[in-house]
Amino acid sequence: MNLETKTLKTDVLIIGGGTSGCFAAITIAESSKAKVIIAEKSNIKRSGCLAAGVNALNAYIVKGQTPETYLEYVRNDSEGLIREDLVYTMSQRLNSVTRKIESLGLVIQKDESGEYVSRGVRNIKINGENIKPILAEAVEKTPQITVLNRINIIDYIIKDNKAIGAYGFSIDENIFYVIYSKAVICATGGAAGLYRPNNPGYSRHKMWYCPFNTGAGYAMGIRAGAEMTTFEMRFIALRCKDTIAPTGTIAQGVKAPQVNSSGEEYEKSYGANKTFMRMYSTVEENKRGKGPCFLKTSGISKEEEEELFKAYLNMAPAQTLMWVEKGMGPSQENVEIEGTEPYIVGGHTGSGYWVDTKRSTTIEGLYAAGDVAGGSPQKYVTGCFAEGEIAALSTLDYIKGRENVDVDNNEIISKLNEVENFLNEEAVIYSVEDIEDGMQKIMDQYAGGISQGYAYSQGKLKVARERIDELLELSKGLKAQDMHELMLIFEVVDRLFVCKILIKHLEERKETRWRSFQENIDYPQKDDANFLRFINSRYEKGQIRIILRNLVRRDDIYEHRH
Amino acid sequence: MSIAIDREKCTACGLCRQVCPGSLLYSDGQGKTFIKYPKDCWGCTSCVKECHFKAIKYFLGADMGGKGSTLYTKEEGNLMHWIIVDFEGKEKIITIDKSKANAY
Ligand SMILES: Cc1cc2nc3c(=O)[nH]c(=O)nc-3n(C[C@H](O)[C@H](O)[C@H](O)COP(=O)(O)OP(=O)(O)OC[C@H]3O[C@@H](n4cnc5c(N)ncnc54)[C@H](O)[C@@H]3O)c2cc1C
Ligand code: SF4
Ligand code: SF4
Question: What does pTM read for this prediction?
Answer without folding.
Answer: 0.98
